[in-house]
Amino acid sequence: xxxxxxxxxxxxxxxxxxxxxxxxxxxxxxxxxxxxxxxxxxxxxxxxxxxxxxxxxxxxxxxxxxxxxxxxxxxxxxxxxxxxxxxxxxxxxxxxxxxxxxxxxxxxxxxxxxxxxxxxxxxxxxxxxxxxxxxxxxxxxxxxxxxxxxxxxxxxxxxxxxxxxxxxxxxxxxxxxxxxxxxxxxxxxxxx
Length: 192
What we know:
The protein has helices at residues 13-22, 34-43, 50-59, 63-68, 112-132, 163-169; strands at residues 9-10, 30-31, 74-75, 80-83, 86-90, 93-97, 106-109, 175-176. By secondary structure, it is of the alpha/beta class. The strands form three sheets. The protein has a three-stranded parallel β-sheet with strand order 1-2-8, with no helix packed on it. A three-stranded antiparallel β-sheet has the order 3-4-7. Helix 3 packs antiparallel against helix 5. The chain is globular, with a radius of gyration of 17 Å. The chain starts with 8 loop residues before the first strand and ends in a 16-residue tail after the last strand.
């Protein structure tokens, strides 16, 4: 029987201060506050993977689920996505698998902000496809590298996104960008 999965703790001012003083992370799984998540999303609003971060933050998708999302399982007109698969990294290999749990395979309704983010992302991906011409790798995935190759579900700080994204995502060790964020999405100035 596998060990218990660690529960997440929210980064509070006190925990941040302790981490800065000692370098010790309170738990292996730490999440941002809704305010921090909003700051991060505002800071990466122009990043080519913004829609990926948006899905993870607002819909609770795991990185592997978001990176595995196919356009055929994404219906922007109906405002629905079917989470059917996940990408898993095993050593240097990336493979497709079923979601982690039985309830992981699910259909999620999309709000208008998420539909807008995904439409904007699709337009950019179509532009990338034209620019790469015959070198484009057709995976059918929503989130890919700029040339269409699979985007491995690595932590944000190692995923080859813009340097501002890496700096923002790695400002606290082991943070996930996923925290429950209330609607409407926060509009705050980005981190400095």
